[in-house]
Predict the 3D structure of the following.
Amino acid sequence: MDVAIQEVVRPASIAEALATLARADARPIAGGTDLMVQLRDGRRHAACLVDLGRLGLDGVRRDGDAVEIGAATTMDAIAGDAAVRDWFPALASAAGQVGGWPIQCRATLGGNLANGSPAADTAGPLLIAGAGVIVVAAGGRRRVPIAEFFLGPGRTALRQGELIAAVRLPLAETAAGRRVVERFVKVGPRREQVISVASLAGRAVVGRDGALEQVRIALGSVAPTPVRATAAERALSGRRPDAVARRDAARAVQGDIAPIDDVRAPARYRRIVVAVLLDRFLREVERG
Ligand SMILES: Cc1cc2nc3c(=O)[nH]c(=O)nc-3n(C[C@H](O)[C@H](O)[C@H](O)COP(=O)(O)OP(=O)(O)OC[C@H]3O[C@@H](n4cnc5c(N)ncnc54)[C@H](O)[C@@H]3O)c2cc1C
């Protein structure tokens, strides 16, 4: 294994971690499920790894009108957390579908986002939740809306030396008599241990008359970054998700995506899969 790591440091405070990360050859490591593979393959380089395991960045907590999930919280912990399951079922579902269970016990939320993959499974659920990424740096902390976090394949709004501390998800109160349907679904070449060919996270608020009062759709693996399907959302707004609306949405969603051919699937297949995932989600919303 050709990993030119010379040093692994385990800081006990965020200040100490940030001081080490000021070095240009230092890189944070959480679960290592992305980074170790990339170092081995020569896709990333680091002489110094800064282990985030002792910084207390793990755990889920209710904070006023939001739920805050520490960056070092594992997928297994997220998938099993009662508050996440209750309030953000798409996120719980996505976390429970990352790799397989051994990966979920190592892989963290912060690592999934910082890696910057268009296929990051937690990104879609965070997009439909309107989450904010809490970033810390030597100069202080800032909040980056998740919609502005992903810049391109492997590129994020994180600057050199910055860390994700947590992700903050606002709690959305639902008016009486409304129904909320929230789902995460993905398609891959097999059931486990694969990166998605396409994924969809959807959240629909359905009024008493069955019309969509609010609908949010996010897609993974079909554009240079995870994306909100705003054209499809517009096509559905205020309508019942019946066959006509579903057909309009399937057409509109093609304008939201820019898939590529790669080793996992051709672009044309991804376009078909997205339309199928959207149709399935909307049928479920219609059924109630
Ligand atoms: C077999 C296998 C299957 C997989 N299946 C899936 C899947 O189905 N879906 C999916 O989305 N992913 C999948 N992955 C990818 C990976 O498991 C996830 O992206 C995981 O969440 C990465 O988290 P980590 O803690 O292991 O990150 P690491 O590998 O430790 O780090 C990843 C990157 O993020 C940086 N980083 C980590 N934490 C922080 C932080 N707090 N602040 C700033 N930067 C940070 C690191 O420097 C590195 O660049 C799979 C990987 C493997 C090996």
In short: The first helix runs from residue 14 to 21. The first strand starts at residue 7 and ends at 9.
